[in-house]
Amino acid sequence: MSHLFYQGRGRKPVLEQARGVYMWDREGNRYLDGSSGAMVCNIGHSNENVLTAMRRQMEKSTFGYRLHFETEASERLAAKLAGLMPAGLSKVFFVSGGSEAVESALKLARQHALATGQDSRWKVISRTPSYHGCTLGALAVTDYDPLSRPFAPMMREMPKIPAPRAYLDGLDPDDPETGRHYADMLAAKIEAEGPETVLAFIVEPVGGASTGALVPPAGYMERLREICDHYGILLIMDEVMTGAGRTGAFLGCAHWGARPDIVVMSKGLGAGYVPLGAMIADERLVEPVLDAGGFAHGFTYAGNPLACAAGLAVVEEIESQGLCANAARMGEKLKARLQALMQRHELIGDVRGKGLLLAFEFMADRTTKAPLPRALNAHDRFVRIAYERGLIVYSRRTRDGIEGDHILVCPPLIVNDTHLDEIMEGLDASLAQFTAEIR
Ligand code: PMP
């Protein structure tokens, strides 16, 4: 009997060892980590430089309470991150994960409103579907049915606008009119809610788990910024999944030159070595809050020196190994190969993504875009088939969390051509088996 419980009762193999893009269980089975865990292990497993940095930090100190001490590790990582952000985003608040980072952003936004006499602003608009975390605040701006609905009565309902799924709506993603069409839904929602009540809009630059690597249509990000500026609303960029090089740039939003007011990061920053997250805010937001008495928020483990030392080594590794460029280059190749796979497997209805945040979506019919029958549970089933073949991929329901199935293919950013061959062989064989099983 196991004393552990997570989402269900299913027992999993016991992880014994992990190196680079590979993982081994206790029985000696080898897996290629085609999802970097949950889009976390961007620099691969057991990176020696990160382990060395962690050992060094452990010899010095492993904890200093943030209200008692700064540490060299947290100061250096903060400076490093500030240097990688769009201009003005220079104030860093460390946490231990993505949900905590999102919570922190929501609270900073609200406290900035209070500190600047905008008490009526509290609504944070997000998209449907979306995933921004599992704590109740982050969940209030999440719209992913099975994870958010049970808790609806415990949260203040926040307004949502549709995610820009041009491929489902039959619109051309390269036409700036399409981006404008979806972004203008934000303006309409703000008007409907009353602009004086709206605090912020939170969005992922490339949609992650909820929409399955959804790349925004042309013009979308630019128009969002215009709308936020027009209404005096803060733009919070959730880079928990897209950050730390995943999409081929250090921040996903950099592809569109976006100017967020707050960026939140986590997964690829700790990269699986440590629990770490960060909220990086514009100094113009932070200063009034500090002047008004301080930021009323914080977590005990925030700024943990071991976590920060590891995070710094991770970022240095991303830079010194050129992993953003590798993600862009390998991502192009992998995407082209997934598109080629679509010719051979008619159940694949769409291939999308940027850098190494890539996905394909199953459809029963490419013309009508109809999803596979819900009861097939295709996303779980496919993941299991691939897993048994030694390939780990990540899947979710893609239509509002209840229907449709996408598979995220997101290997560590260190992948080479040989790894891509192995991933493609695993996918091809798994798709053939999956098709035979459900037909
Ligand atoms: N935001 C996004 C975009 C995410 O993908 C996730 C995690 N999947 C979170 C927030 C929450 O992060 P965590 O699970 O570390 O709390």
UniProtKB/TrEMBL annotation:
It holds the Pfam family Aminotran_3. CDD domains: OAT_like (cd00610). Its cofactor is pyridoxal 5'-phosphate. One of its GO terms (molecular function) is transaminase activity. Keywords: Aminotransferase, Pyridoxal phosphate, Transferase. InterPro entries: Aminotrans_3 (IPR005814), Aminotrans_3_PPA_site (IPR049704), PyrdxlP-dep_Trfase (IPR015424), PyrdxlP-dep_Trfase_major (IPR015421), PyrdxlP-dep_Trfase_small (IPR015422). Belongs to the class-III pyridoxal-phosphate-dependent aminotransferase family. This is Adenosylmethionine-8-amino-7-oxononanoate aminotransferase. It comes from Salinihabitans flavidus.
